[in-house]
Specification:
heterodimer; A: 329 residues; alpha+beta; Alpha-Beta Plaits; four-stranded mixed β-sheet; three-stranded antiparallel β-sheet; 28% helix; 15% strand; B: 226 residues; Fumarate Reductase Cytochrome B subunit; 9 helices; 3 strands; metal-binding (chain B); transmembrane helix (chain B); electron transport (chain B); transmembrane (chain B)
Chain lengths: 329, 226
């Protein structure tokens, strides 16, 4: 069998012959709560998914493709006056079109901002940093951040660590779920299902270099149409991401349904996983060892016969004479 | 007058003198709390650092440990609450505590004669009591904020980050207090039987808690305790 190629697009149709996987455990460059990860033998080409908000028509083909490929079963929701459905990401819905009606203060035009929300596949993933379960969250050398569910314990630390509010813990199996960037498709040379399904190619997939280049052509086009602040959203605070946006108003990402302006792993999370852990272990270790040593090698405070006699005298005095020997009470 | 002792504390026997310090129900209460704290420390440490993740095997794996830890936390909270209600009064600070702390070196040198006479608890025991009280409160409150299974949306994610950090710092704190507590109980020979058999020797009481002994012995003049 031949090995699957590294995918460089989501558009091409898949080869029909069976192929060996090309995204292997040996391609993992980081794993949660793991110290002794073997050095990977090769470096995969960095991949990225580009979401061009200016081309999105809000059709939700990506959501449908995601549900179909991942075989998830989101609950049937109800309409609360927005096209957003379901109303949030869930353990059964890894991507979500978020709809925002925004009045541009410069033009007074109503702009319908539609952003496909989901895991950003951070180069520096907060979920992975926060996770206490060895190997439950991994990062491959192509940039994909994936949850390994057999190792997941459902503690929710990834929720605490993520700067984008993405992971959701299943109420059914108590494991955490999010977009995999279709790692199982990428492994066999395919692009993600959402990109494959997108009718306007607002979602495209390929090497990160190609995607950046493509984004620049899109930004030129948007600039020519009067979107002077059009730009790429590839936030440096998390080391860049492997899902990137073209934003018509890149100077204020937060208008797009709360996309963080400057995402980074919270200093609280860094402090918890950094100095608290290191210093805490040291202090507890020293205290425990010190207590053991002092316990074994010092004499301790002992009561002697004199103390016992004094006690007897005290008790007898209080009784106003020798005890008649009533014994235990 | 009950100032330095609990009403139930009494002289059990006189030759040799033994003094009842904790009744059975208090001892059971103490050991339930202790067992909970040990389970919590072991399961919590497993999540604290990957180096100790193997401890989850004691409880049947990561998922079970994640489920068990907060439940035992609730048990500990209520168990400690009962202990608190029984013990808080005699753990209030008293003037002699200050002198005792100022001359703590004499305790280490085993010159307890030079320290003031004490009631049922010394300042070190009081510190352990109040530190446990405060830390358990902090741990239960921050713990519920990060209890994913039952309270996933109780607080916002930024608040949850604060709770996470506070919970882990308080956990380190309570483990240190636990070490102090166990060490002191062991180092001061004759103490542990107070929580196993419920009584201490007269000599122990005379040496470490003489005001307590005086009060308990004095009470006997009104007739046998029981």
């Amino acid at each position: 069998m031949t090995t699957a190629p590294q995918p460089t697009t989501a558009v091409s149709n898949p080869p029909v012959q069976p192929m060996d996987l090309n995204l292997l455990p040996s391609d993992v460059i980081r794993a949660s709560a793991t110290y002794d990860l073997p050095e990977p033998s090769r470096q995969l080409e960095k991949v990225a998914k580009l979401i061009d908000i200016s081309k999105c028509i809000g059709c939700k083909a990506c959501q449908s493709a995601c549900v179909e490929w991942n075989d998830t079963h989101p609950e049937v929701g109800e309409n609360v006056g927005s096209y957003e459905n379901p109303h949030d990401l869930t353990a059964e819905m890894f991507t979500l079109m978020r709809f925002e009606e925004w009045v541009n203060p410069d033009t007074s035009d109503l702009e319908w901002l539609i952003r496909k929300d989901g895991c950003m596949h951070c180069e520096d993933p907060g979920c992975l940093k926060a996770c206490p379960a060895p190997g439950a969250i991994v990062q491959y050398s192509n940039g994909i951040v994936d949850f390994v569910h057999e190792n997941c314990i459902g503690c929710g630390y990834c929720v605490t660590g993520c700067p984008f509010d993405i992971p959701r813990i299943s109420k059914v199996d108590h494991k955490s779920y999010k977009c995999t960037l279709c790692s199982d498709r990428v492994a066999v040379g395919q692009g993600p299902a959402c990109a494959k399904a997108c009718p306007t190619q607002a979602i495209v997939f390929g090497t990160k270099a190609d995607m950046i280049e493509h984004a620049h052509t899109r930004i030129e086009d948007l600039n020519a149409r009067g979107y002077d602040n059009a730009g790429i959203y590839d936030p440096a605070g998390v080391g860049g991401t492997h899902v990137i946006y073209v934003l018509p108003h890149a100077e204020k990402p937060s208008i797009y349904s709360g996309l963080p302006d400057d995402p980074r792993i919270s200093p609280l999370v860094e402090g918890w996983k950094g100095v608290t852990k290191t210093a805490g272990m040291a202090v507890m270790g020293i205290a425990a060892a010190g207590a053991l040593l002092a316990g074994f090698f010092t004499r301790g405070s002992r009561v002697d016969d004199h103390d016992e006699q004094e006690a007897e005298r005290l008790v007898e005095d209080d009784l106003g004479g020798p005890d008649k020997g009533t014994g235990a009470g | 007058m009950v100032k330095y002792s609990e009403r139930g504390d009494h002289i059990e026997s006189t030759e040799p003198v033994t003094v009842s310090r904790y009744r059975g129900i208090t001892r059971i209460n103490h050991w339930v709390t202790a067992a909970s704290l040990i389970v919590l420390a072991l399961s919590g440490l497993a999540f604290f650092t990957p180096a100790l993740y193997f401890l989850t095997a004691l409880f049947g794996g990561g998922q079970v440990t994640r489920w068990l830890h907060p439940i035992v936390g609730v048990i500990l909270f209520f168990s400690f609450l009962l202990l608190f209600l029984q013990m808080w009064r005699l753990n209030l600070p008293r003037p002699e505590d200050k002198t005792w702390v100022a001359n703590i070196g004499e305790l280490i040198k085993d010159n307890e004669e030079k320290l003031p006479e004490l009631g049922k608890y010394n300042a070190g025991q009081k510190f352990v009591f109040w530190a446990m009280t405060v830390l358990i409160l902090v741990l239960i409150v921050s713990g519920i904020m990060i209890w994913e299974q039952f309270f996933p949306d109780l607080v916002t994610i930024p608040t949850r980050r604060v709770a996470m950090l506070v919970h882990s710092l308080a956990a380190v704190g309570i483990i240190l207090v636990f070490i102090v507590h166990v060490f002191a109980a062991f180092w001061t020979r004759g103490t542990i039987r107070a929580m196993t058999r419920g009584s201490v020797t007269g000599g122990w009481a005379w040496k470490h808690h003489r005001k307590w002994l005086r009060e308990v012995a004095g009470r006997r003049t009104q007739g046998p305790a029981e």
